[in-house]
What does this fold into?
Amino acid sequence: MNYDIIVIGSGPGGYVAAIRASQLGLKVGVVERAELGGICLNWGCIPTKALLKSAQVFHYIQHASEYGITTGESKPDFAAIVKRSRAVADQMSKGVQFLFKKNKIDHIQGTGKVKSAKMVEVTDNSGKITEYSANHIIIATGARSRELPNLKQDGKKIIGYREAMTLQAQPKSMIVVGSGAIGSEFAFFYHSLGTKVTLIEVLPNVVPLEDEEISKTLERSFKKAGMKIMTGSTVESVDTSGGTCKVTVKTRKGDEIIEADIVLSAVGIASNLEGLGLEEAGIKTDKNKVVVDEFYRTNIQGYYAIGDIVKGPALAHVASHEGIICVEKIAGKEVEPMDYNNIPACTYTQPEIASVGMSEKAAKEAGYEILVGKFPFTASGKATAAGNREGMIKVIFDAKYGEWLGAHMIGDNVTELIAEVVVARKLESTGREILDSIHPHPTMSEAIMEAVAQAYGECVDL
It folds into this structure.
């Protein structure tokens, strides 16, 4: 069969690219060997948020008396929590199936491999091979949990994020290696349910890609809740021969051996490039990434790549936007390259973290004279009424022109608030324009305006 576009992979990059292409009148086929929706929808973004919601509900129940509500004894039903998470993922995957039917997109079940002359070879579950041709081929195969030589995953005692979502029973203790978004979220989830969690990070701060002040705030929150944090520490080896995992950790003070039922490796991701036929097709790669231009074209005409397999933040919303830009360019529309300096990042711990743009340190290193404003949620009426005053909003502006360089947030629902900053930066709004925009009271969102006012020395609530 011949298609206008064949997409290999149906994650947030692939399925969005396919739907947008169909909307533009193109004939589209999507090759997917597993569930529609890819890792994010089935084993990442969505089911983890379902798990975290259960942890949040349990936390509320435990603290119900603080809201004037009396409850009986409560305890988490781990199997039921996992079951709910899987049901949420299944429901969302069925939603993608519906969208494929609605947009007349062909789902080609099997494993795809690119070939020369704009051909795709698909091997189905029975081993049967079928070839398809397309005018344009988009590779969107995503990524998987990265393995370190001294932290080999066996799926039982040393696990990755996929196994962490479907454990048969809640472990009494867990060591989480890596404190990025994935590691921190799972550390929070298991700790909230009663698992004794140790979080290990090789860099000086947890969530090391965030502004240092935000990182320190989350670390204090985790420690206050009783989690053990080991920063500046490296896992040297793991002994799984006994009933538990004995982990040798190199710290600033020397080696330390700690034990846990489970070790969760959350040390990043690796691109899924193996077996795709890239080398045979002549498609260039560099450092485990496909080399593309600003419109995701590879060095071979008619072949494209988006998402986690290309250079840039490995985030679902980035992959989706790359897919849209890619197919709109193919369809001949006027499109702009993505601004990778205006991409929001979110971590769904409690408190949540959200950020966009430069950190304070990065802005200074770039030579900007800056204005920094901070508004703590201890001064927020809405946060106080909601019962959680932890966290703050931090904003950074160029002092000369008022350009919004960055924003960094930690607290309840900040992953919902960050979009205001993204839109404002896209529209090149200045700090003064934010101050002139009325924010509703009482809301968490008005803390953004208050932080901007503080940067300009005009905050009336601090």
